[in-house]
């Protein structure tokens, strides 16, 4: 039983998943800080200051704190947008090296004449 537990815990997928979760949490903290501390204040603070509000989360109407919900929606949209651009940049960086390798490995396609000559030769060998 302990051997099975050891095999399960040390299996490659479990270790990879654990590393991904830890790195994801660290990356999440970076993105959250970027959104909360840099992007959102640049976009929303001037408009809020003009309205006399310090933070979106402070907005309420008749005891309904709709500002917290609005803040969460804005954070979701901004975080999604930031992640979109980060993923696009990462994909572009990964594919940059691959395109150069593929370009070197590609061989030109045979011409129609070469294909017909090959078919002729195959039929002649029958």
TrEMBL record:
A cellular-component GO term for this protein: plasma membrane
Keywords of the record: Cell membrane, Ion channel, Ion transport, Membrane, Transmembrane, Transmembrane helix, Transport
Molecular function (Gene Ontology), one example: mechanosensitive monoatomic ion channel activity
Subcellular localization, as worded in the UniProt entry: Cell membrane
Subunit structure of this chain's protein: Homopentamer.
Family in the record: Belongs to the MscL family.
Role played: Channel that opens in response to stretch forces in the membrane lipid bilayer. May participate in the regulation of osmotic pressure changes within the cell.
Protein name (database record): Large-conductance mechanosensitive channel
């Amino acid at each position: 039983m302990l051997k099975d537990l050891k095999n399960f815990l040390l299996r490659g997928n479990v270790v990879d998943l654990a590393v991904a979760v830890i790195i994801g949490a660290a990356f999440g903290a970076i993105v959250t800080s970027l959104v909360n501390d840099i992007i959102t204040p640049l976009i929303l603070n001037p408009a809020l200051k003009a309205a006399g509000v310090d933070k979106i989360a402070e907005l309420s109407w008749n005891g309904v704190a709709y500002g917290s919900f609005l803040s969460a929606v804005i954070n979701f949209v901004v975080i999604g947008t930031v992640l979109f651009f980060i993923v696009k940049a990462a994909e572009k960086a990964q594919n940059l090296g691959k395109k150069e390798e593929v370009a070197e490995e590609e061989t030109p396609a045979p011409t129609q004449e070469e294909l017909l000559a090959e078919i002729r030769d195959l039929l002649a060998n029958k």
